[in-house]
Amino acid sequence: MIETNYLQLAQQAVIALKWEVSFSPKPGLVDAISNGSHTDMNIDLFYRSADSLLSGFEEMIRVSYQQPLDVKLREEIGRIGRIAEKNMFKATNGVNTHKGAIWSLGLLVSVISSLQTDDLEQILTGVKKLSRLQDKFVTKTKTHGMVTQQKYALTGAKGEAQSGFVNVSKALSFQAESDTYDTWMRRLLVLYSNVNDTNIVYRSNLQTLQEFQRLSSEIVRSSTSVIDNPQFKTLQTFTKEKNISPGGCADLFAASYFLKHLN
Ligand SMILES: CC(C)(COP(=O)(O)OP(=O)(O)OC[C@H]1O[C@@H](n2cnc3c(N)ncnc32)[C@H](O[C@H]2O[C@H](COP(=O)(O)OP(=O)(O)OP(=O)(O)O)[C@@H](O)[C@H]2O)[C@@H]1O)[C@@H](O)C(=O)NCCC(=O)NCCS
Ligand SMILES: Nc1ncnc2[nH]cnc12
């Protein structure tokens, strides 16, 4: 049992987002040394975007405090999430930096505040429940996620949450006690190997996603440190040549860091 400090928990979510973007190098993604496969984003834009989300997260935490995980709460955080998306687009001049993160971290902070717990299993079970509830006010505009769902039956960001973030669990249980740079590199690659990232598929195809996952899992399996592994260079070249970016994995990486540093 924890006693939630609204502002502090929201700040932890923002810190996790800033940590994620500065963690380097991350093939395909924006980091401190490269803009990855992006021409409209850089690290400063992500910092501004992360800061714009503080009040939205704080509001989600406030409305969720000791509330049941029901449709009323799902719709309330959906409403706040849509405002947070608007604030993000305003801060970034229309660039989609953190849409997936608003969803993933929003669900996490809401469940933590609702259940007043820092127990990982309880939190993930709560996310599974809350994300499966229907928000009838959700906007009907066609998203990239909908396109890849129709074309390839991939469940994307919604599916990750509805599974109780199984891939975040996998990443966190990898060398569970360790907090070294190489462990976090490997956790990133555990996500790259397992998540069906709809951003990658939208920009390319299923075969490219599968090749990206295969290259990533080979690096995880090797005992050579990630940064010294020649296969890591191959993965960097692959993301560049295919112009792909695992933005969904980036959000789940931030969520993993957030959960690991909750207490
Ligand atoms: C339920 C929603 C998540 C909407 O989902 P849907 O799939 O319909 O919507 P998308 O517009 O496709 O956005 C989903 C974002 O989720 C990230 N993502 C993708 N795949 C996965 C995955 N397998 N697991 C987890 N997360 C995933 C991804 O966000 C990240 O990438 C974005 C940047 O990428 P980029 O390549 O630049 O993409 P674009 O600019 O879009 O395209 P290009 O032209 O460049 O190719 C960045 O946002 C990252 O965060 C997807 O973008 C949910 O959003 C929803 O219902 N919202 C309504 C309000 C609400 O309820 N909010 C939450 C309250 S808790
Ligand atoms: N570092 C990053 N690069 C590109 N897209 C992202 N979405 C969330 N974090 C990202």
Automatic annotation (TrEMBL):
Q: Which UniProt keywords apply?
A: ATP-binding, Nucleotide-binding, Transferase
Cited InterPro entries = CitG (IPR002736)
Q: Alphabetically, which GO biological process terms does the record hold?
A: prosthetic group biosynthetic process
Reactions performed catalytically: 3'-dephospho-CoA + ATP = 2'-(5''-triphospho-alpha-D-ribosyl)-3'-dephospho-CoA + adenine
Listed name of the protein: triphosphoribosyl-dephospho-CoA synthase
Alphabetized GO MF terms: ATP binding; triphosphoribosyl-dephospho-CoA synthase activity
Q: What is its EC number?
A: 2.4.2.52
